[in-house]
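Sharing a chain and its predicted structure for anyone who wants a worked example. Both blocks are below, sequence first, tokens second.
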Amino acid sequence: MSELRDMDVAHRSPLINKIAFGILAVSLLLVLRPYSGIRHDAILYLGQGFLRWQPSEFSHDLFFAYGGQAEFTVFPQLLAWLLKHFSVADIFIVATFLGRVLYLVAAGLLVRALFRENGVRTQVYALLAVLALPSVYGGFLVFSYSEPFFTGRTLAEPLGLMALAALLSGRWLICTVLWLMAALLHPLQALAVWIVIWFWLVLQNRRWLLLLIPVVLVLLLAALGVKSLAFIALKYDAEWYSWIASPNRNVFMLKWPVKSWMALLSDSFLLVLSIQYFSGRLQVFAKAVFLALICSCLASIVLADLMRLAFMTSLQLWRVQWVAHWFAMAALPLLAWSIYNREYGRERLLLLVACVVWAMPAGQISPSPWLVALVIPLFVFWGALVRKARPAFSREMIIFVALGLMLGLLLMIVTTVTAFLKQGADLGSFRLDSILLGHPLVLALLLLGGMRAWGRPSGAFKGVLLCGLSASLIYSLYSWDSRSIWNRYVEERAGESNPFGVQLERGAQVYWEKELLAPWLLLRRASYFSEEQQAGLLFERKTAEEAYRRKMILQRLAVQAEFCNAIGVVTGQVDSCSLDIYAVRDMCISAGHELSYIVLQTELAVPELGWWMVPKHNKEGQDITFHLYSCSGVLENVVRK
């Protein structure tokens, strides 16, 4: 950690240092989280935009038919306006890039506000940490801040960070405006920021506790049965809960796997250490974040998991972890330096690194999350262990932890490189660079080594390093668009004529096997069912009920499709298996008038309406042909037979 002494950004060649750091920051921002296209939640947000733009086509889609979360945000209206004027692909890639830049600015502002008293060097390392270290949090570690795709969170999170920066700077009006803007775009992420703000205010002045009075009063009136507040006391009945428990298990903390709990434990531990090692308002902020995290998670367990209150579950109070994890990563460099300069600094620093690495693994191979539960007690009681245990014990434990880190890193590298080679060694489809650099140890060693080299007095050496940084920036910009071939193919065809060459009547619903983006974006028609549409089951019972009914209708066909896909993998031929036409017929009968068309990768024993050949979009490089059938045609031909 001597780089914290060696690198004087404020006084040694400030201009060239700022230029170098700016290039490094942008390069990290782009190369570590390359653009992945319209996927994950971005698909759902695209659908919300389509709903506002073309309500006649999408209002009866399963995801929107009975209401949902889109009613509480202005993001769909903003996206609908953009869709009227620009192409879908351009909107999402440009908006994602602008969101990345906004996140960099917001992170820089909050880092500066947090570590103003600790100097520029600490701010530099803190900003690098929040740009480079893993950003995942929550149940099953499927959530992350600064995501590589466009959603309401893309803008709301930077606005929330800037609101916190304004708060720490005493700019109350700006803080309020920024927070309101974040809330309009993504209420749940903004709620997490507000909870942190409230705890900060309470720690400054206990009179802010009075805000609990109206909250408790509303909850009491809801419990007493006030009709206008009945939604607050509404519970998931046994049937409704059974429909949402599996597809929405990430919102119920007691269903989280061990790895999610260990990540939460690691963040909490870093916050506790921040409270212990920091002072002043940085310590107060750490307390506010820690209290917000613990209280919100406890409230989520009680109100969502135990009481099963629908409204309280939909608030997803555990999302406070996004702010907590962000701060834990930002505080990590200063925390590591503070620990290093205390008793048993080297040993405890190694244990701290192990805690972070094993809690937030990167790459394809993850060590047991229970290792986090091992290193935290070792860190806490290290002094007592050294004093009471035999001399060799402490040395053996440190060797064990160091070997564990090195072996884990080596295994990750070997496994990732092997997978890269098996998939054709194509960086366009397999971002080996992002995966390897995404490992905290790899990136930390490179950054610390680079900082040490930059601290050399030789101007020529700095020039060479600056050229290297410039090359990395050019590469990160060039390679940032890392959409899969399939995603790129679909997005670029959006707005063109129907790829099947068949005009579908308005209001038709389409079942496209394992696809939601394709029917929405290519056919501009409602989707009958997809797994992604089950994200809205929390908010409306009717949505959950209808989704379960449709899933049961499709179950027989889905099982056969999985079997055919498995055969295709073994034989190397996608169309080596065909589905039972009677299973398709029964599905159309059960779905009734709600299902008009079916798109499958296998041919049926009935005439198709059209077909669409996609050249080599999958990893094996095979051509894929999609076949379009109408339920009316299936019923007519099967009955005739």
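Comments welcome. The CA atoms of residues 274 and 286 lie 6 Å apart.
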